[in-house]
Design a protein that fits this description.
Two copies of one chain form a homodimer. The first copy, chain A, is built from 22 helices and 19 strands. Chain A is of the alpha/beta class and 616 residues long. Chain A has a seven-stranded mixed sheet, with helices on both faces. A five-stranded parallel sheet of chain A has the order 1-2-3-5-4, with helices on both faces. The interface between A and B is large, with 119 and 119 residues.
């Protein structure tokens, strides 16, 4: 058997195995897998350089299924590579199996979770950036894409960035089987449509018959030898290829075949080909950046006036000077988020992502696949643009750090489009996330340092305006802790960030009236310091005031309510938050209009203290 | 003075006025406004057909500033049109002024809020779709775009859809001033880069010098007479044009000029040109679709087994048969969301948006600008892709209805990428939103009908699996209400959707053990029925169990805590929710693993009843 015959046979095996897998729970996407089988057979047999016994080997190529629903095909490839057994293949989609409906990194050979379309290629851009600019190793990133998902704007962010950064180590393969979930895609089999777009975006594009294994072989060879630009192989394929009943038929997306045994027979039966996947050359080691090794965080004097967004920038550059694995990304606002300070000091480890927040977050996820420690920044409001990527990053068990600046109405005149008022809610609802909201520069710096090695998705919210430094530079701020800044027995005020300062002003005013307010700085919104909150509720007769520059739902108020929900601690919680849509204005005017400035906090505290609480 | 001279003079006036506006609060984006002044001068003088005295006239053109930060220019145009006075112009960015930092529909001539880049063109696609397919009127949609924002993937979703739908009534104008916020854009002044991309995406593209008013005139004439495809005018411009100190200089983005008086003098001084903006032809009326006029919602029998996602589809088509203003959009999953039923019955009022959720939501916002009543659907998880558009839709005071299906772990084998577990949190945190989560088909149908005329952003969460019909078809479900499905005094269980059924099973089991559980169906998650919740807490000794197929943060648990936070109602709230990252499995297996099935609910209820609560 020559190469081509072997590849065709392997392609048939991948089809057979995809059908077998889907038959287990009678669910999955076999027809979407069958169209790409030949594309993957050639890749696995000849082009992928991957050691399945050493998934963490930095020299490995990377394979991402952007069309994550073709997971039966991916798992069939693992079987063909000898990495999993047939028995395991046949646990597909079963409870407890690591072979889930869509791939996740619970499987050692999967870098990133996919399944939400239009994401795999942006992740691939991140890994390719790591390969070219950080690791400086020649591994290749292969991304199998569907044609339907080319409608996602995020794919075009990926196309733009890959060309701009000359990622010739990235190869996209589009499985153009013309049928989406519901029906025909916008372009059907018009390969030129895709190729024209790709070329306009600066890619090299090769159009082929996707079941012609020799054409596939030539295309991959050409892609692997094209320099200065990434390549996309646009392959005309047939959904459900190989089984007449479903070939190119609408209505078979996401359905197991009715007659798997008949289909397998039609495909020539079960095979047992094991492919010797080429291992990568072990030449070179991941590049290491020269650094001092000792972290010297910036410090400020109590009483200084500094914006926490500025402190983020100053702390990040210090972190970058101490640790060569720390990298930064920003979305065209680095002069506002102060990521520019890191950029200027460590240009080799900074990535300008322009106005493309989805690609920014995806690149961060890709970079951490290769063990780099990414800090991504933008306005907090604009991270909402990337929420599906943040959601999926949790499924990827990714470790990324995001800093969102310009939180709340306190940004002032720019108005609501630039104000983050839902970011705490958004980020609290991310699985395993950490949500931090510092109020001063020293606290910010310490928290930035803590973000570096913490697992999961860590979000820090920073403020545009200058705020006074109230903590000494020797203070520590454990995540999950809080600061009790004023002691008191009459009422508890819980705040963070800019409203923490307003709360202190209010407390000091109240103290003059004989009302002692305990002020808690909830800089760690998630995890929240339940112990301190419950003790405060106890000590202040259950009178709690929460204050946040954020909508009422999902933020500090909810975090406090959650901590007090155990029934041991009766409380009346009054939640001050932004309730009306803000407009433009000076920060002080907007804080007052939202009822979250010192005056309104004091007023609410007086009411609470004066009110009767049923439980006392 | 001939036309060209008049246009140049107007352009200068628009520059002068932009500088004057920004000088008021010493904030704003004058240089971003100055680059587009000539483009807008010609548009306002000759091409825009708009009656400023009748902003709701359906024949009006539409002008959107996708580069919303160029608001000084937009407001200067209003001044030049005689729509606002100079005095009002000089309230720019001041507290209480409707001339906010970025435009919002608080201003009658603004259709949609912009300021988050990459959004204006997608909104324009929505309005253009309305013009071509629904209103069937010849108004034109003009969208002024920045070059930086071309990096946003959503712009390419707009480009794709505009060409696919042959929106020759849409004209985009790209102000290529080569400087973003932080520095040079990816393409600088390489107009071909943008033109190549636009042409590849099926648009007609015209490249011009953006300060040559005669070239602008020719380009607009060509755009307005091009048929079958949209046109983009790509204009080479100079940021800060007209004032040497800032012309084409980095570092001036978002800054008021240091010496506004000197700049105004350099520009030739203040002018007082008032433009007679052409009014639209009053030919034709908005098309009206023939309908029955009387709503006949589908009904089911108690005991039937029906998925609420299916009921959505059945109810939507009924609504569409009764009301000709109801339109539907879906993102390539209409066979899963059941929007396909509407599509098949009312194809003229259905828009396939393919896999492009940002454009889907934006189109819905655009359609409602023209008073259509859009219902958009996709998997609930994928609406996270459009969260920035949803956030901005609230600032647009838009009335849109979104239905997200496939909520929670109960979708089964597809796994977490397809499961919405944060959608309740996400949507609760949207200003003025309504969040609905029906548990059965009759309830779904009634709620769909109520969504039609409710203001704001209304989100309905539906379930993949069949669930029993428990409500009669004559029941009513007021938004803000709840259903008390079991009476009881020992413990309250609050749930919705699929966990409501699990709660009923649990309650019936507990009742056999002598524990009477009150079961509340919180189908209206926001606004939540605080009164019923507080009464239940009172009646059941403060023992509350919430159960949701959702992460713990931001959903039903938080909604209940919020309702009980007034301190009048001591409660111990135990929140059952999904806490570990789910995998694949049968729905029943996944519900059990997440601890939110009947068995675990009963167990938690027993614990609660057995536990001592401090307040009793």
């Amino acid at each position: 058997m020559n190469d081509a015959e072997r590849w065709r046979e392997l392609g048939q095996q991948l089809r057979v195995d995809s059908i077998r897998a889907a038959a287990v729970t009678k669910s999955g996407h076999p027809t979407s897998s069958m169209s790409a089988a030949d594309l993957m057979a050639v890749l696995l047999s000849k082009y992928l350089h991957y050691d399945f016994d050493a998934p963490d080997d930095p020299h490995n190529d990377h394979l991402i299924f952007s069309k994550g629903h073709a997971s039966p095909l991916l798992y069939s490839m693992y079987r063909a590579a000898g990495a999993i057994s047939v028995d395991e293949l046949l646990t597909f989609r079963k409870f407890g199996s690591r072979l889930e409906g869509h791939p996740t990194p619970e499987i050692p050979w999967v870098d990133v979770a996919t399944g939400s379309l239009g994401q795999g290629l942006p992740y691939g851009v991140g890994i390719a950036l790591a390969g070219k600019r950080l690791d400086r190793l020649p591994y290749r990133v292969w991304v199998l894409c569907g044609d339907s998902e080319m409608a996602e704007g995020s794919m075009w962010e990926a196309f733009e960035h890959a060309a701009f950064y000359e990622l010739d180590n990235l190869t996209a393969i589009i499985d153009v089987n013309r049928l989406g979930q519901r029906g025909v895609t916008m372009h059907g089999w018009d390969l030129d449509s895709y190729a024209d777009r790709a070329r306009a975006f600066g890619w090299h594009a090769i159009e082929i018959e996707g079941h012609d294994v020799e054409a596939i072989d030539q295309a991959y060879a050409e892609a692997a030898s094209t320099t200065s630009q990434p390549t996309v192989v646009i392959a005309r394929t047939i959904k459900g290829k190989g089984v007449k009943e479903v070939e190119d038929k609408e209505g078979w997306h996401g359905k197991a075949l009715d007659d798997p045994d008949g289909a397998i027979e039609e495909l020539g039966g079960v095979r047992n080909i094991i492919v010797e996947v080429a291992k990568p050359d072990e030449i070179g080691e991941p590049h290491r950046f020269e650094v001092s090794g000792s972290l010297e965080l910036p410090t400020w004097e109590v009483g200084d006036d500094v914006a926490t967004r500025r402190a983020y920038g100053d702390a990040l550059v210090a972190l970058g000077s101490a640790r060569g694995d720390v990298v930064a990304l920003d979305g065209e606002v680095s002069n506002s988020t102060f990521a520019e300070i890191f950029r200027d000091a460590h240009p080799d480890r900074y990535f300008e992502m322009y106005i493309a927040e989805q690609q920014l977050v995806a690149a961060a996820v890709g970079l951490q696949v290769r063990k780099w420690v990414p800090f991504g920044s933008s306005f907090a409001a604009f991270f909402s643009r990337a929420y599906d990527f943040i959601r999926m990053a949790a499924i990827s068990r990714a470790n990324i750090r995001l800093c969102g600046s310009h939180a709340g109405v306190s940004i002032g005149e720019d108005g609501p489009s630039q104000m983050a008022l839902e970011d705490l809610a958004m980020m609290r609802a991310v699985h395993g996330s950490t949500v931090l909201y510092p109020c001063d520069a020293n606290q910010t710096a310490k928290l930035v340092a803590e973000m570096a090695d913490r697992e999961g998705i860590i979000f820090m919210r920073t403020t545009r305006a200058n705020t006074p430094v109230i903590y000494g530079s020797d203070e520590e701020f454990p995540i999950g802790g809080s600061g009790v800044l004023r002691e008191g027995d009459d009422v508890t005020i819980v705040a963070a960030g800019i409203t923490l300062h307003e709360s202190l002003k209010a407390a000091d005013e109240l103290s003059g009236e004989g009302i002692s307010a305990r002020v808690i700085d909830l800089y760690s919104v998630k995890p929240a310091d339940g112990e301190t909150l419950r003790a405060a509720a106890e000590a202040t007769g259950g009178r709690i005031l929460t204050v946040e520059d954020h909508w009422p739902e999902g933020g500090i108020g909810d975090a406090v309510l959650e901590a007090l929900s155990d029934g041991e601690t009766p409380a009346r919680v009054v939640r001050l938050a932004v309730r009306d849509m803000p407009g433009s204005g000076k920060p002080a005017e907007l804080l007052a209009a939202a009822g979250i400035d010192a005056e309104h906090i004091a007023e609410a505290a007086r009411s609470l203290v004066g009110a009767t609480i049923t439980t006392r």
